Amino acid sequence: MFVDQAKIFIQSGRGGNGAVSFRREKYIPNGGPDGGDGGRGGDIIFEVDPGMNTLMDFRHKRHFKAQPGEDGGKNRRHGKDGEDLVIKVPPGTIIREAETGKIMLDMTGETERKILLKGGRGGRGNQHFATSTRQAPRYAERGQEGKEYWVILELKMIADVGLIGFPNVGKSTLLSVITNASPKIANYHFTTLNPNLGVVHNQYGRDFVIADIPGLIEGAHEGIGLGHDFLRHIERTKVLVHVVDAAALEGRDPVEDVEKINYELAAYNEELLKRPQIIVANKTDIPESEENLLKLKEKYESQGIKVIPISAATRKGIQPLLIEIHNLLEKADADPIKFKEEFEFFEEKEEVHEPFTIEKLGEHYYVVEGVGVEKMIGYTNLESEKGFAFFQKYLREHGIIDALEEQGIQEGDTVKIYDLEFEYYK
Q: Which UniProt keywords apply (predicted)?
């Protein structure tokens, strides 16, 4: 089954917590702090797998989480880093952030492997917070949280040439004639329900990859039928080969068909109409095709669009078609079409959540210790109203006020932070 879109949840690993530990040996009863650091969380990595051509693997597995880092241990033992998670996708896959629809990553061209989400940093153990005045810190740093997103994987096939046109005009037959592909062919609408890729070994010029885009219908740009599923595969093609039934065997007007399909292309993405086009008038082995062939040439060759008569059934006209495709590809950029990555990752300032402890020594007496609050007292003038307001803001922003309230502090209770004592008021 061909699947070209999937929605999945990705999450990088959180960092491990730093450890609170003290050296305790037989002859060293009061050793210093020796708490180790937490390990780094695992990254989320996307990698191109050339052997994949569908997103079917993501139909049943939707959650992808990298391993968290281990917590630090005693004796300065560093926690083990979390394992990275590698997610393999087919060439040409775009990763979009689900909420905004913005492109985070395009797995095309040289982008064969890329870290999308970095794992969280591990927290520092209490060994890092010892100073000459603070020899036994009883706190350590928590690990940094990983990042998480719902994303949409969207496969846009990588092909040089796209075969487009209404159903049953002979695209699959043409593909089978000029390539090594073997699509199923029958005389009914919507035979091709999946895009088919083929490689053309062109004896008249350069080799190229061609995609048979399933038959479009009116309203495709609005998602009618399988419109969006079909149209997305045209976006990477450099040349559009527009196949029409010149014999009008089903009563369709080939000129109107070209106009309708071009309208659908423009309504979906205006850039598509800027791509070079060739109009292939198929079924010209049937006498009724002559009048329509003249109409097509009269309307489009004056616009610089070649109209090439062929018969896919009898192989008539295949050589001029391959030569013209070669000529247009020679003028095109050789690199695959790549989509701009527009999603902005807001790199949070590496916030150092300075660790702290709160100890309740009496019914109304709380002692707060921590490297951050100690520094704040050292460089803030608490005698001034502005300085004390700044200090209060620090306590609130760093979660110290919330932690005191969780421990049951009431208005009028006393808080001691090193040499500073004050009464708590909301």
A: Cytoplasm, GTP-binding, Hydrolase, Magnesium, Metal-binding, Nucleotide-binding
